[in-house]
Design goal:
heterotrimer; A mainly beta (88); B alpha+beta (936); C alpha+beta (416); A: 88 residues; mainly beta; Folate-binding fold; two-stranded antiparallel sheet; 1 helix; globular; disordered C terminus; B: 936 residues; alpha+beta; Ubiquitin-like (UB roll); FAD/NAD(P)-binding domain; Arc Repressor Mutant, subunit A; 6-stranded mixed sheet; 6-stranded antiparallel barrel; 21 helices; elongated; binds flavin-adenine dinucleotide; binds zinc ion; SoxD (chain A); Sarcosine oxidase subunit delta (chain A); SoxD_sf (chain A); sarcosine oxidase activity (chain A)
């Protein structure tokens, strides 16, 4: 099992975390169009390579965090903390 | 006829401890330290099994755990490696898949049809007539080759048959306890590392164990060093199964007291793979006749178990091990004919059926014998390394694939025979250098690869894979070199395809013996070089592993409310609800429901999700996650809310109460307790990090009890200490905090899922049972009784209250759940708003409705389909019960929006295929639609 | 030309020792093809076969970066069934089962379809309700499915622990007699051989690295072996669907997750039906060779890595033993993983796109092997006629932009 570097708890087994998926900017709900919104809801970049994604340290500090992972081999490197905003 | 030799220097049997066991029902002797195979071989047994397809007799080939010829059933355990498993007194050992007996097996008749049954023959026949295929299928199934499992065969797991697991974090894990592995372990431990040294065989030593005096001296010296070095944990009879991401290494440990097997999950900083070499069989006609053995098999039998494998031997040798084997045999009194492959000698055919009778040599000579030994080359045991990313390369000089260390991650190293050749001293030196480097890498937090140990020499070896005739390649699958040639001819030129087509390497031997021969023969058939034909992907586990060991102990947590023991002792029928076990009823759900309608009942609703929310921005959060409005909720009030996903689909519902200025208690569905909390956190941490809210899950901090029924106020009044429960003081949809039955810190809200006057009490969990019992005691004269989930379901259905996930599904949006009234599109943002503002037009999707059946006592099963006038499916019954209050069926249904008008008729398709009529009702609620009882 | 297979042919070859002609040929890569199919799995090969067999479009190239069937088609657990939840789903998969039943004789290749019944266990009243729902939709659509009780489950699978005290007791099951298993490789090879016979070119080890689009139309593909001009490209690359669609600039509602499976050593046959437990995330069947084949749910995070994990086998074994405690001593022989192109509504994405000539047959997730024949038949019609066949009309890419998802998720995601 891969280890994820939690900025608060250190390297931990991935099964302590919930996978929240690739980071997608949320369109402004008051001005969005159906096409844009549904793109946000359903389309995914699904990159084969390095991606920025969000994980939830469910069995640890209970923080959402942002990591970078190479989806071809699951190598992981740290990124900024999720609380720095939604990011894109 | 005894084949037992006199004492050998390195023997592992204990002649002072004789024992007996049975083989196919007959009793045989052996010694402690014997394997099943060695004990039988010492008694002259030569045939241990029949082959998969042609049921050819099979004997020992490797005399090790890899031996495909010696898979046996031991008591209730199938497919035991008889050449590895130590024999125990009283063991019941049987041959597998032989009928009627091992020596006379009717399926051996397949051999006659062998020419008609080439690789993949079954793809080419039985196509028609199609109706006959199931009969053919049954016949093919008879050929399934293995032992037996199943009830009647397996005793329930008793004391010794538990499995367990262990987590370990060694600095260095050494896989393989041969000379290089032992040396690496010692050096790493001396550098201060914690070391786990894992050896598949029953003792440390690798090939030294069956070697000559020089080897044995080196062996005892190395073993002494291991024993004298602190910090090394030695696991023997333990096999490294796999190397996974994060250097997670799984080890299966056997032969332990108290447990049948143990799975060790080790996170090693550095893995040193020292798995050595596997001797490769040679492919020629008759190479699977009992009596054809590898040189290492012979040396094991003679030197470890003091068994004489035959009386007259031919030894085909291409290396020093073959030469040494010939000497060993001679010393054991066997007459030996040497055939030296380095000088062009070859074997073209072994003759005989149940045993070798003669051998035809490359020069045309024929030699009578009962043992043919081959020593034609080695395969590097690279599987662990390939699991770590290595792609071995074919080395023409050594005539074997060797690992490509440059592809290994820095936390994986290799030493010993798997990387190169050399004398024992050279292997030890390499092991030491590797151990030193492993220790260095383990000591660093961020590993940088550095000083790789100097390479071991690579000795030239003739490339011997297949001789001049065709023979067996995969012994456990009965795949011959001819089959591989056929596969290539038919277009399966890529090894991966040829393997699939012929099933070579797919059997219980997992390709460890035959994989390289397969590649070499495909290369030969396609005319390509071995190097470009490529090697194969090794997948874990390295050795077959029991499901019991992988499973360990049952790991299914169960959640129980603090009242569980009470429910249990009062005859509650258990209901599995996700992680929770809840009381379904206490014997009579209908009576339980009636007592709520007429008097008062109490139900344990502890699993309801509860989240404590604090901070100045809670009401903004509620406004965001619920579709309805929350800004004006006053202290002391509760409100029902519905949550949707970003796609407008209903995900949860519940009530939230405001306990104080900036303190709220949110409730969720039982199954939503965790997901809703994580949902809140995700909004708070990612999209609204500036908001100040603390969300704390408190589901199990409280025992929750719903007191329901027209007399519930009377009952509650008797147990509250400081809460005024009078109707004016505590109206519907209000919340109070206070002391109940002497317990401070309780939360009471007045809500009504059951449709009756009711109060939900959230009591600090440790006092839950106390309050529950006080309620029962105080309400005895009111007729209070506990009710279960079933009664609650009846009551809520009569009242038309929906259950998210039952009356809605993964596509139901808020308006589809008849919740349009709740959705406040004039809020500037809430989760689901965009979709809800675009959807919900009449005619779109399905709607939740009530149904009135005719005949009206007919209760259609939940899941029954609704049909429109054309007979097409237009919806389904989501909930249905016979209403005790009304004496007729009450139902909720999802139905196409166009039909969701009161009075519309639909057809209900009943489970038995019949139909009934139903009409859409005015309201969802069938009992007390005005809500008078709730507000009493 | 390849000869027909039969018992007689086997006998003839056996007696004469004559060799067989190849199942398919290696042919030169041409500079252009009227239709290029990317992906040599069951979907790509079936589409090529039906284009040639049903529509006379024979000049088709199937390109695969590896060997035929090296993707999901060679890694799946080959469970076939049509007991879906939605009417669209049931109709679609039932047509596929029908094609599977006739496949051996249609392709002159024994794909070893074993109709052995399929059991989906219910361990809670919630799942029992969903089973009933599925059974009723199936029956209303003429598909044989029924909810059965624990006793009947025990009769079908004597090894099953149906005691009421089990942690997850078996309360019943959805029994679907037409379900079964097939030999996955045989299906791939059968289609490949039949397509080759009709003139289709199969190019293995040919990786598509780019798609040429000009003026909103496909004009060709680039490969590691050179460019190919073509007006029609079908993306049938399952787990790699997004990477190929990106080349044409068509974003997909797809995420790639590994799905793992494992197989045990052979033992004598004792399990006649396919058994699935959603609650325990496990399914199992026994092959004619005696091996038990296990699968589970997809890995917990998206990835293109097929390395597999230890935790998968641990969880799997624990769950299997909860269902059948007597298997504790059975040994796991091999584990592996394949890639699954998951969509938000557990339904495929099929048909034309906004880029003229660029077609999709993706989103097959964990269930696409059973759909291979019908998808091939429908995509062939779609490509040959330019019209979307009725049977796949619910599965278009535009459903996402319109917010009209398929309701199949109802069965998969009602997790209460
Ligand atoms: C472990 C497992 C178990 C499963 N069990 C079942 C089951 O029981 N029942 C069921 O119905 N389904 C099952 N599935 C799902 C099923 O396997 C797939 O949905 C199905 O095989 C998809 O077939 P395909 O032809 O679309 O894709 P694939 O067979 O994956 O073929 C796609 C091909 O595209 C090729 N390719 C990718 N990119 C390129 C490129 N750039 N250029 C050229 N070629 C490329 C790949 O090499 C691959 O061969 C399972 C899947 C897995 C992984
Ligand atoms: Zn953390």
């Amino acid at each position: 099992m891969i280890l994820l570097p939690c900025p608060w708890c250190g390297p931990r087994d991935a099964d302590e975390f919930g996978y929240a998926g690739e980071i997608r900017p949320r369109p402004d709900p008051s001005t969005t169009t159906p096409a844009e919104w549904r793109g946000y809801l359903y389309l995914r970049r699904n990159t084969a390579g390095w991606t920025r994604e969000r994980w939830f340290h469910r069995m640890g500090c209970r923080r959402y965090l942002v990591l970078e992972r190479d989806t071809t081999n699951n190598d992981v490197r740290p990124s900024t903390d999720a609380s720095s905003g939604s990011g894109s | 006829m005894s084949m037992r030799l006199g004492p050998r220097v390195g023997e592992v049997i204990d002649r002072d401890e004789p024992l007996s066991f049975t083989w196919n029902g007959r009793t045989y002797p052996g010694y402690a330290g014997d394997t099943i195979a060695s004990a039988l071989a010492a008694c002259g047994v030569r045939v241990f099994s029949r082959s998969f397809k042609y049921h050819r007799p099979r004997g020992l080939l490797t005399a090790s755990h890899l031996d495909p010829g010696c898979m046996v059933q031991v008591d209730d355990e199938p497919n035991v490696r008889g050449a590895h498993r130590r024999v125990r007194p009283g063991m019941d050992v049987r041959s597998q898949d032989t009928w009627p007996t091992l020596s006379f097996d009717v399926k051996a008749a397949n051999e006659l049809a062998r020419r008609m049954l080439p690789a993949g023959f079954y793809y080419k026949t039985f196509m028609s007539p199609g109706w006959l295929w199931p009969a053919y299928e049954r016949v093919l199934e008879r050929f399934a080759h293995g032992g037996v499992v199943g009830p009647g065969k397996v005793s329930a797991l008793d004391g010794n048959e538990r499995y367990d697991k262990r987590h370990a974090h060694p600095d260095v894990l050494v896989a393989g306890g041969g000379p290089a592995g032992m040396a690496a372990a010692v050096t790493a431990a001396r550098s201060g590392c914690s070391v786990m040294l894992v050896e598949e065989e029953l003792e440390l030593g690798g090939h030294l164990r069956w070697g000559d005096d020089v080897d044995l001296t080196a062996l005892s010296e190395l073993r002494g060093r291991v024993a004298a070095t602190p910090g090394i944990e030695v696991l023997t009879d333990a096999v490294v199964l796999g190397r996974y991401d994060g250097n997670e290494i799984s080890v299966l440990q056997r032969g332990l007291p108290h447990v049948a097997e143990r799975l060790v999950k080790a996170r090693a900083r550095t893995l040193v793979a020292a798995p050595g070499l596997i001797e490769r069989p040679y492919v020629f006609a008759g190479n699977d006749v009992p009596g054809v053995m590898l040189s290492t098999a012979v040396r094991r039998l003679v030197n470890l178990h003091a068994v004489k494998p035959g009386d007259r031997a031919v030894v085909l040798t291409a290396n020093a091990d073959g030469d040494a084997t010939a000497l060993d045999l001679e010393r054991a009194g066997v007459e030996v004919t040497r055939v030296d492959a380095r000088r062009g000698g070859d074997v073209t055919r072994a003759l005989g059926r149940g045993r070798v009778r003669a051998v035809e040599l490359g020069d045309g000579r024929r030699v009578e014998c009962d043992l043919l030994v081959t020593a034609t080359g080695w395969t590097s045991a690279v599987s662990l390394l390939t699991m770590a990313g290595d792609q071995p390369r074919y080395d023409d000089t050594a005539a074997r694939f060797r690992p490509d260390a440059s592809r290994l991650p820095s936390d994986v190293m290799a030493t010993g025979g798997v990387v190169g050749d050399g004398s024992c001293a050279q292997l030890v030196a390499h092991g030491e250098a590797t151990g030193r480097e492993a220790a260095r890498r383990s000591a660093q937090s961020s590993v940088t690869a550095s000083a790789a140990p100097p390479p071991l020499p690579v000795e030239p070896h003739p490339a011997l894979f297949r001789g001049r005739t065709h023979g067996m390649v995969d012994f456990s699958e009965d795949v011959s070199s001819k089959d591989l040639f056929t596969a290539v001819e038919e277009g399966f030129r890529c090894p991966e395809l040829a393997k699939r087509y012929t099933t070579a390497t797919m059997g219980p031997a997992q390709g460890k013996l035959e994989s390289v021969n397969v590649v070499a023969i495909i290369a030969e058939a396609t005319g390509a070089a071995i190097a470009e034909t490529g090697t194969t992907t090794w997948r874990p586990p390295y050795a077959p592993v029991s499901l019991g060991a992988l499973a360990g102990r049952l790991r299914e947590p169960t959640r129980l409310s603090p009242l569980a023991s009470w429910h249990h002792s009062h005859g509650a029928a258990p209901l599995v609800a996700g992680a929770w076990i809840r009381p379904d009823h206490y014997g009579d759900p209908v009576a339980e429901a009636a007592s709520v309608r007429d008097g008062v009942g109490i139900i344990d609703v502890t699993p309801i999700g509860k989240i404590d929310l604090r901070g100045p921005d809670v009401s903004r959060l509620l406004n965001l996650v619920y579709v309805n409005k929350w800004s004006k909720l006053e202290v002391g009030r509760v409100r029902y809310g519905v949550m949707c996903g970003e796609d407008g689909v209903v995900i949860d519902d519940g009530v939230t109460g405001r306990l104080a200025e900036d303190r709220y208690l949110m409730s969720t569905t039982s199954s939503g307790a965790v997901t809703v909390w994580e949902w809140l956190e995700s909004w708070l941490q990612t999209e609204r990090p500036q908001w100040r809210v603390h969300a704390t899950p408190v589901t199990t901090s409280y025992a929750s009890i719903n007191v329901a029924g027209p007399r519930s106020r009377d009952l509650l009044a008797r147990v509250v200490d400081d809460v005024d429960v009078a109707p004016e003081a505590f109206p519907y949809m209000h919340v109070r905090t206070g002391r109940l039955a002497g317990v401070p810190g309780c939360v009471v809200w007045r809500i009504g899922f059951t449709g009756e006057l009711s109060f939900e009490l959230h009591v600090p969990a440790g006092y839950g049972l106390h309050v529950w019992e006080r309620l029962l005691e105080a309400g005895r004269d009111l007729g209070v009784r506990p009710f279960g989930v079933e009664a609650q379901r009846i009551l809520r259905l009569e009242k038309g209250h929906l259950i998210v996930g039952q009356d809605t599904d993964a596509t139901t949006k808020a308006y589809g759940a008849a919740l349009d009234g709740l959705v406040k599109l004039d809020k500037d943002d809430f989760v689901g708003r965009p979709e809800l503002s675009w959807g919900g037009q009449p005619g779109d999707g399905q709607r939740l409705v009530g149904l009135r059946m005719s005949p009206d006592s007919l209760v259609p099963a939940e899941g029954s389909q609704l049909l429109d006038h054309r007979g097409l499916i237009c919806g389904r019954v989501t909930s249905s019960r016979l209403s005790p209050a009304l004496g007729r069926a009450v139902c909720l249904a999802q139905v196409e929006a166009a039909l969701a008008e009161p009075g519309r008729q639909v057809t209900v398709r009943l489970v038995d295929g019949g139909t009934a009529r139903a009409a859409v009702t005015e309201q969802l609620a069938q009992v007390d639609p005005e809500g008078v009882r709730l507000r009493a | 030309m390849a000869e027909a297979y039969s018992a007689l042919a086997l006998l003839r070859h056996g007696v004469t020792g004559r060799s067989w002609t190849p199942m398919w040929r290696e042919r030169p890569l041409e500079r252009g093809y009227p239709v290029v199919i990317i992906g040599g799995g069951v979907h790509g090969l079936a589409t090529a076969y039906y284009l040639a067999a049903n529509h006379g479009v024979t000049n088709v190239a199937v390109l695969d970066k590896g060997y035929l069937g090296g993707g999901g088609s060679g890694r799946n657990t080959a469970i076939l069934r049509s007991n879906y939840l939605t009417v669209e789903g049931v109709r679609f998969y039932d047509r596929s089962l029908e094609l599977y039943r006739g496949m051996a004789s249609a392709l002159n290749f024994n794909v070893m379809f074993s109709r052995r019944g399929h059991l989906t266990l219910a361990h809670s009243d919630t799942s029992l309700r969903t089973m009933r729902w599925r059974a009723e939709v199936n029956k209303a659509s003429g598909v044989d499915s029924e909810v059965i009780g624990p006793d009947e489950v025990k009769r079908l699978v004597p090894e099953m622990d149906t005691s009421a005290t089990a942690r997850y007791p078996v309360l019943g099951a959805l029994h679907h007699p037409p379900g079964g298993i097939v030999r996955h490789d045989a299906v791939v090879w059968g289609y490949a051989r039949a397509a080759d016979r009709l003139g289709v070119h199969l190019h293995q080890h040919t990786e598509v690295t780019g798609i040429e689009v000009s003026g909103g139309r496909v004009t060709g593909v680039r490969t590691n072996r050179g460019p190919i001009a073509t007006p029609v490209v079908l993306n049938a690359t399952a787990g790699w669907a997004s990477t190929v669609s990106d080349m044409a600039g068509v974003p997909l509602p797809v995420q790639t997750f590994p799905l793992q499976a494992a197989v045990t050593e052979p033992v004598k046959p004792f399990l006649r039906t396919v058994v699935v437990s959603g609650t325990l995330h496990v399914y199992v069947s026994q092959t004619a060779r005696g091996e038990l084949v296990f699968g589970a749910s997809v890995d917990p995070f998206a990835s293109y890595s097929t390395r597999g994990s230890l935790e998968f086998t641990e969880g799997l074994a624990g769950h299997v033993l909860q269902l059948m405690p007597s298997l504790a001593k059975l040994r796991l022989l091999r584990q592996w993983a394949g890639l699954c192109d998951m969509t938000p509504d557990f339904a495929p994405v099929m048909g034309a796109t906004d880029v003229a000539g660029f077609f999709l047959d993706v989103g097959w997730g964990t269930y696409g092997f059973k759909a291979g024949p019908v998808a091939g038949e429908a995509m062939a019609e779609c490509i040959a006629t330019g019209q979307t066949p009725e049977i796949i009309s619910a599965f278009g890419l535009d459903r996402f932009a319109q917010g009209r998802l398929v309701g199949e998720k109802g069965a998969a995601a009602v997790g209460h």
